[in-house]
């Protein structure tokens, strides 16, 4: 019995049922909407996976769970997912940054494919059917599962694929079976910042920023995007993922330091300024920007260090240039909270990984209890990595469910 009709639950159920048609596979989904997150994912386009095919590189995209996913990625990785979907008539395309989407640009393509595959494999999908409680006994079938419909089911093996929702009964069941749940905190959020340097720049992005959190060993590179509420973009989301625990501990009040020119050091920027001064002495700073920054941002940085719009490279003081270099390479912003990134968000925390056998996704503490997807303490950065971990852990669990010996020993 599979608890949860999300990406991981469906993929595990389909894998088990396809690999061993003699097994009866039941999937219980609490809501009336199976695969709801697949449908809303990637802004409605579903970023299914990422064009990263080396397991060693792939695992570097997971702030939690990377080490444990190395073995599983050797067995089921993005290439396998692409081929699986292609076999079922779903083609993917790769965007410049490596993210992969269905060519239709519609998440329904993926959801419909999974629903059709589950139906073809005769998975018994029960919607509006939550699992309220599950307990293991000594007899057979081992598990007694109480459903929110009032019904009680018996099954030999239980797979928890109930996602990262704090209130999910999945965590309560895992806990009752002896598992530690690593504290649940959000990952992949944007930063709330109220700062005159960003006002009116909504939608502006720089392709290569470097961001770090003051007082923490957290530093990333990537594009940064100014939003109505502060800062977002891949660099900020990465910082929120790698720092999910530290930033929660700070109650999302901290200072983020941003270099708008990720590839250049402060010395290099100072040298750029010296060259600009030598070669363009009569030009105004406002119109001659040696850093290649968007003009509106450059104007804000000049204003932040009180360099007037008509100041020329020959008249600007060394102290003002020094301050400008600091704004370009280390703009400090006070973060006052977090906002939801509507494209993708996940939960950091979940079932402790040391208690799970990643060859089968079976619990090391409670036989015939399996896990897949976000219920585990695994999460990735944005880009399709979260779904990939759901597909991979779902596939491994499904393969193990199909292969595990019959309960009567045959
Ligand atoms: C808005 C948004 C966009 C996203 N976009 C992307 C993206 O483009 N690419 C990407 O890689 N990742 C994306 N993610 C992350 C991705 O959706 C998740 O990592 C992934 O869905 C996890 O799959 P899962 O099956 O483990 O959990 P879920 O998808 O959360 O599914 C769990 C299911 O279990 C059900 N359930 C819970 N408790 C019970 C119970 N007791 N009984 C029965 N059913 C239960 C829930 O109702 C739910 O349907 C996005 C997330 C969000 C929120």
**What characterizes the major β-sheet?**
6 strands, antiparallel, barrel
Q: Strand pairing plus helix content: what structural class?
A: alpha+beta
- Number of E-state strands: 21
Number of helices: 13
Spatial strand sequence of the major β-sheet: 12-15-14-13-16-17
Q: What coarse outline follows from CA principal-axis ratios? A: elongated
Q: What portion of residues belong to β-strands?
A: 15-25%
Low-confidence stretches: none
The helix fraction, in percent, is 25-40%
Q: What features would you describe in this structure?
A:
With 410 residues, the chain is an alpha+beta fold. It contains 13 helices and 21 strands. It has helices at 7-19, 36-44, 55-58, 66-75, 78-87, 107-120, 169-176, 234-242, 244-249, 266-279, 295-304, 318-329, 385-403, and strands at residues 2-3, 26-28, 49-50, 92-94, 99-102, 124-126, 131-136, 143-147, 152-155, 158-160, 181-187, 189-193, 205-213, 219-226, 230-232, 254-259, 331-340, 346-351, 356-357, 362-363, 369-371. The strands form six sheets. The protein has a six-stranded antiparallel beta barrel. The chain is elongated and about 85 Å long. It starts with a strand and ends in a 7-residue tail after the last helix. The site of flavin-adenine dinucleotide has 38 residues, from helix 1, helix 2, helix 7 and helix 13.
């Amino acid at each position: 019995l599979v608890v949860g009709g999300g990406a991981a639950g469906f993929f595990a159920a389909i894998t088990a049922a396809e690999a061993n048609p003699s097994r009866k596979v039941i999937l219980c989904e609490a809501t009336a909407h199976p695969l709801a997150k697949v449908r809303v994912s990637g802004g409605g386009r579903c970023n299914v996976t990422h064009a990263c095919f080396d397991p060693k590189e792939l695992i570097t995209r997971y702030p939690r769970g990377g080490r444990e996913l190395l073995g599983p990625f050797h067995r089921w990785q993005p290439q396998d997912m692409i081929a699986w979907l292609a076999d079922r008539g779903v083609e993917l395309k790769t965007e410049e940054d490596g993210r992969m989407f269905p060519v239709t640009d519609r998440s329904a393509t993926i959801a419909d494919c999974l629903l059709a595959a589950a139906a073809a494999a005769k998975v018994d999908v029960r919607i509006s059917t939550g699992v309220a409680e599950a307990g293991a006994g000594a007899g057979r079938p081992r598990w007694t599962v109480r459903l929110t419909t009032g019904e009680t089911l018996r099954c030999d093996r239980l797979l928890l694929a109930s996602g990262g929702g704090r209130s999910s009964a999945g965590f309560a069941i895992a806990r009752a079976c002896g598992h530690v749940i690593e504290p649940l905190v959000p990952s992949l959020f944007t930063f709330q910042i109220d700062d005159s340097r960003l006002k009116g720049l909504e939608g502006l992005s720089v392709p290569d920023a470097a961001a770090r959190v003051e007082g923490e060993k957290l530093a990333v590179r990537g594009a940064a995007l100014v939003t109505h509420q502060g800062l977002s973009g891949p660099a900020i989301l990465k910082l929120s993922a790698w720092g999910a625990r530290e930033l929660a501990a700070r109650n999302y009040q901290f200072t983020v330091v941003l270099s708008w020119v990720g590839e250049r050091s402060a010395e290099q920027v100072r040298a750029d300024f010296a060259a600009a001064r030598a070669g363009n002495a009569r030009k105004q700073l406002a119109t001659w920007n040696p850093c290649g920054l968007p003009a509106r941002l450059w104007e804000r940085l000049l204003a932040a260090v009180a360099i007037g719009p008509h100041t020329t490279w020959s008249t600007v003081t060394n102290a003002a240039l020094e301050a400008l270099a600091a704004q370009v390479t280390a703009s400090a912003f006070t973060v006052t909270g977090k906002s939801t990134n509507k494209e993708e968000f996940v939960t950091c925390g979940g079932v402790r990984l040391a208690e799970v056998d990643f060859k089968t996704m079976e619990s090391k503490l409670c036989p015939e209890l399996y896990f897949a997807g976000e219920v585990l303490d695994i999460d990735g950065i944005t880009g399709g990595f979260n779904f990939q971990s759901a597909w991979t852990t779902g596939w491994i669990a499904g393969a193990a469910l199909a292969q595990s010996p019959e309960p009567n020993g045959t």
